Amino acid sequence: ADQTYISFSDGNRIPQVGLGVWQTPNNEAAPAVRAALSAGYRHIDTAAVYENEEGVGEGIRSSGVDRGDIFLTTKLWNNDQGFDSALKAFDASLKRLGTDYVDLYLIHWPSPHRGLFVETWKAFIRLKEEGRIRSIGVSNFYPEHLQKIIDETGVVPVINQIELHPDFQQKDARAFHLTHSIATQSWSPLGQGKLLNHPVIGKIAEKHGRSAAQVIIRWHIESGLVVIPKSVTPSRIEENFKVFDFSLDPEDMAEISTLDSNSTRIGPDPLTASF
Ligand code: NAD
After folding, report:
1. What does the pLDDT read at residue 1?
2. Is 215 part of a structural domain of the chain?
3. What is the β-pairing status of strands 13-15 and 5-7?
4. 21 within some domain
5. The pLDDT of residue 264
6. Source organism's superkingdom (predicted)?
C-alpha cells in the first residue's frame, strides 16, 4: 500500500512518515538516508544542530532518487535566531546540504528568553517569498508562541514539531493546532524506544502480527500526525516504513489513548529550556 500525506495550509503536502536523524554523525547519516530512500521513505528530518546536514545531503545525492521527489526538513538553531542571522544560517544549511532549497524550515525552539522568535519568523517569511523554502514552520512552540507570531506577522506556520508519544499525547497543543490549520509532527514518536516494551502496545502488536514500533507509528498516522522515527539500522528503518498495509482497530486506538499521562516529557520544557 502507498504511503500517506498530510496537507499543509499553504497548499504543499508532507509524507506522513519520515526518517529522523538526530544523534547520527555524518558517516552514519548518509547510509541511513540511503537505506530509508531505498525502503520507500521520501521525507528526511535533520537540523543544523545535529551536525549531519552534509551526510544527509550526500545520502540523498547517492541514493539515485530525484531531489524533487524528496521532502527535506532542516531547522534553525537557537543561537542563530534574529533576522539577519537567520538568513545567514539558512544559507549555511543549504550549503552543507548541497541543495538549493528545502521543503520545510523550522525554528527549532522558541527560546523565549532570547526574545527573537518573531524577528526570526520574519526572515523565514522572506525566504519563503524568495522560493528557497517551500514551507515554513516551527518546533517546540507553545500555543502562546504560535499566537504571538500569528498576531505579529499574520503568517501561520504550516506545522509545529513537538515531543509527542503515546504517554505524552499533547492534547491541548493539538486542539490549538487544529483550530489554526497547523499540522502536528511528533518528535521522539517511540518515546526514544522506551514504549516498545509497554504491555498494552505488545498485546496490540501480537494481535496484528506486527512489531511494537509499527503499532506506535500506526497510532501516530491514524491520529493524523506526521511522524519521524529514528533508526540507523537498515532492518528497523524498513520495518518502521512497513506500516501502510494494516490498520489499528478502534478499540486499539481507544486503549492507546488511555496511556496518556500528560506529564512524562523526555526532553526539556520549551518554556523554561535555558538554551
Ligand atoms: P524515537 O522515538 O524515534 O526513538 C528512536 C530509538 O528507538 C532509536 O534510537 C532506536 O533505539 C529505537 N528504535 C527505532 N526503531 C526501532 C524498531 N523498529 N525496533 C526497535 N527499536 C527501534 O526518538 P528520537 O530519535 O528522539 O526522535 C525521532 C526524531 O525526532 C529525531 O531523530 C529527530 O529527527 C526528531 N527530534 C526533534 C526534536 C526537536 O526538538 N524538534 C527533538 C528530538 C527529536
Report:
1. 81
2. no
3. antiparallel
4. yes
5. 85
6. Bacteria
- The 10s digit of each residue's pLDDT in 115-134 is 999 999 999 999 999 999 99
Contact 215, 205 (CB under 8 A): yes
Structural domains of the chain, count:
1
Is position 139 within any domain? Answer: yes
One DSSP character per residue, 164-209 reads: -BTTB--HHHHHHHHHTT-EEEEESTTGGGGGGG-HHHHHHHHHHT
* Nearest alpha carbon, ligand 1 atom 35: 187
CATH code for position 22:
3.20.20.100
CA 233 – ligand 1 centroid, Å: 12
Amino acid at 95: K
Q: What span, in angstroms and rounded, lies between the C-alpha atoms of 29 and 22?
A: 9
Ligand 1 center to 154 CA (angstroms): 33
CB of 32 shorter than 6 A to ligand 1: no
To the nearest whole number, what is the mean pLDDT of the chain?
97
Regarding the beta carbon of 104 and ligand 1, being less than 6 Å apart is answered no
Among protein residues, the one with the nearest Cα to ligand 1's atom 30 is: 187
State the Cα–Cα distance between residues 164 and 265, nearest whole angstrom.
8
pTM of this structure: 0.98
ipTM of predicted complex:
0.98
Q: Is the pLDDT at 79 greater than 90, yes or no?
A: yes
Instruction: Identify the domain containing residue 161 by its residue range.
Output: 5-195+224-245
Instruction: List binding-site positions for substrate.
Output: 108
Q: What is the pLDDT of residues 146-185, one digit of tens each?
A: 999 999 999 999 999 999 999 999 999 999 999 999 999 9
For residue 267, is it within any domain? no
